């Protein structure tokens, strides 16, 4: 049985005759009669009582008509969904992110995209940068918001810079270096450092080592944590000082000082990452909006 059998059957039922179906479909009567006969032979049920001028549905034909219409409607709906999906208007978008680096633009981007594409289901999944890269390679998420790609992932993934997050010194409120407007890292050379693990954020860890090296020392690492909130907690507990990217949530803590660094390269990239292997119109539509809503440098700084 093929869809044309159902379409011919519905046309004949709705027009009350084969000749009426022929006129409606612009197909010869003989072709429609042949297909209707094939349909009845296949299902082994008479669907019409025919005369020379009329084709009247049998009781079985009446029930078959209801189901045939439902099938054709479902097929047409499936075609519409496929076309909308191809246009990036329906579907599911899986987005990876990590809370320590959502930036000032990320919540705004999600709100705008939901409003602009109400037919798209958005799934937000919190993951570390490394987890996002692996998930993108496997096609488990569509877009990721991470730090700079590590070399081994650059061949299989593509990235777009969204913003550069300033790195701040995180200090106890009563620390001598907290009194000024900016911090010279050289003044923290003898302090114990609380750092985010390289496994969690290799770009941040490497930039911290680079900044300290440029300031003439190697940091004395007192503790390593996997999340920025734990780093902040340990600084608050008096275990040391830290360097973290600017994050709006940090400034809710009134027991600590978050001070800009004097170093010119005191920033870390916040990037949007995707896999060209799994790219599609929906992904491209989202990325275009993300680029449109990319914050200006002064907007990033004003988030503090």
The Rg value, from CA coordinates, equals: 32 Å
Helix/strand structural class: alpha/beta
Overall tally of structural domains:
2
The count of strands amounts to 11
Q: What is the first-to-last residue Cα distance? A: 66 Å
Question: What CATH architecture label of the largest domain applies?
Answer: 3-Layer(aba) Sandwich
Query: What is the fold-level CATH name, i.e. the topology of the largest domain?
Result: D-Maltodextrin-Binding Protein, domain 2
Q: Strand content of the residues, in percent? A: 15-25%
Basic shape:
rod-shaped
Question: Can you give the mean pLDDT?
Answer: 89
Q: Count of helices?
A: 10
Please identify the top-level CATH class of the largest domain: Alpha Beta
Describe the main β-sheet briefly: 9 strands, mixed
Note poorly predicted spans: none
Order of helices and strands: HHHEEHEHEHEEEHEHEEEHH
Q: Into which percent range does the helicity of residues fall?
A: 40-55%
